[in-house]
Amino acid sequence: QVQLVESGGGLVQAGGSVRLSCAASGRTFGSYAMGWFRQAPGKEREFVAAITWSRDSIYYRDSVKGRFTIFRDNAKNTVHLQMNSLKPEDTAVYYCVLDQVDTFVRVSPRYWGQGTQVTVSS
């Protein structure tokens, strides 16, 4: 099993920045992709960003391109999401995800964290 623990959420004003972090533990041997999903109130969960083990592939949903940056530290089994120029529509619970298959991490990741709330006020 793999455990994912997120941190860094909170309340921020529109235009501000927040950095989310996620630490993976447990059976994290081998290479794996990590990423982030989010779910806003009354909406379906949606993909936000993902990064492969070697960092040679990074993906973002269109609405966050140019504002969000995902990066990872393989030695520490962590992934981070730097979110800049935040908008009220970015308000959601953000979930860290992990999968040993790169493509799955963007569609149906196997492992999920508990989520951390990000609220952007206008």
Describe the structure.
The protein has no helices and eleven strands. Helix content is 0%, strand content 52%. The strands form two sheets. Strands 2, 4, 5, 6, 9, 10 and 11 form a seven-stranded mixed β-sheet that branches. Strands 1-3-8-7 form a four-stranded antiparallel β-sheet, with no helix packed on it. It is globular. It is mostly beta strands and 122 residues long. The chain has strands at 2-7, 10-13, 18-26, 33-39, 46-51, 58-60, 68-73, 78-83, 92-99, 111-112, 116-121.
Give a summary of the structure in a few sentences.
This protein has 122 residues and is mainly beta. The protein has strands at residues 2-7, 10-13, 18-26, 33-39, 46-51, 58-60, 68-73, 78-83, 92-99, 111-112, 116-121.
Topology:
Layout: E1 2-7, E2 10-13, E3 18-26, E4 33-39, E5 46-51, E6 58-60, E7 68-73, E8 78-83, E9 92-99, E10 111-112, E11 116-121
